[in-house]
């Protein structure tokens, strides 16, 4: 069986709830949450396959620093470019999905809907890490749902009540 790059069903309750919650938040809140969540959940999966690799963690930290106002926008864009390159070079389904999740999370500062998209890569990374790469879709789908539910809880906890400037999100799925 060929493994999918992303897992998650757009019409699932978890995905729909994530999209509705994201619609209430600002671009800055979404980007900061996405980067923090990717660092917490998907960086360890990447590092389990590439423990000596320093470029990805450094680029992720550069994105986080820019979101905190500690770096120039050009530094953030350079870090995003580096993350995309690293993700394209990464081998192995778990590490590759994790690297793609991280790169996509960091791009949420430019494209707020990436705050959702990175989770689909992350769900794949989590499922393949949890069940191995020789399981069936019937095994992976519930694991992806579990990860998306975890992300929803995290987003709700990070959300700003009554956010004054919610991002304009257009879902193309």
Automatic annotation (TrEMBL):
Q: Which organism is it from?
A: Candidatus Ornithocaccomicrobium faecavium
Q: Which InterPro entries match?
A: Imm5-like
Q: Which residues form the Imm-5-like domain?
A: 21-134
Q: What is this protein called?
A: Imm-5-like domain-containing protein
